[in-house]
Amino acid sequence: MDDVEVLNSERHADVRMMSGDQTGSPFVRIVTSEFAAAVVSCPLLFSKHAETGAFYVGALLGFKEGELLIDRPDGKAAFRPLEADREGFFATGEHIALDRTHPRFSGSGQPLFDDRGGATLVLKSAQAALGRLIAGAEATDAFITAMRDHRLIEPIDITLNFDDGERLHLDGLYTVSLDALGDLDDATALTLFRAGHLQHAYMMVASLQHIALMARRRNERLAAGV
Q1: What's the CA gap between 151 and 44, in Å, rounded?
Q2: Which residues form the domain of 156?
Q3: What is the model's pTM?
Q4: Which end of the chain offers a freer environment for a tag, N or C, measured as fewer CB atoms within 10 Å?
């Protein structure tokens, strides 16, 4: 990425940053350390990287681009993924870099650095989110590998019909197979349990209830003309 620059308090003294956007992609990558916060609000599903075909896990925030269906009655999102806070920032070796072309660095918002060159709260928040994503990557990869190796991942058909006549089909999503979980031998189940993988697997299964709730919320908005 030609526009990615290693973060520097002098070079980026005038860069201002807006809050991360949660109304972009409806499916956002997360790590297993986010599961406990996400499972109360979002369906957690697997998908595959377009370039490599490798599985990753993400939270479904809506059914279409720019749509957020996990907001609370006060209008705030019930779950904020780490990806939303680290948008525009990347790890490069031991350094943090930013993509100057990212929309959140469009000129408005809060400065990255204070008058003394120290990181501001908004930058610290982005740095912390990036750090948590990096720290959670290994455990998340281990979980995905365990699910894949034990053939516990299966495709899921999500086809939704809405009151305005629109029919949506979400492609390329996968979940954990309850049948395959039930077929595990005791030794394998115990190994997965002790590694924390079984708990995360059941969280993903339980989270599927949110699909119907999100569809109902979408219909309510359609009826209200929102």
Answers
A1: 18
A2: 4-224
A3: 0.89
A4: C
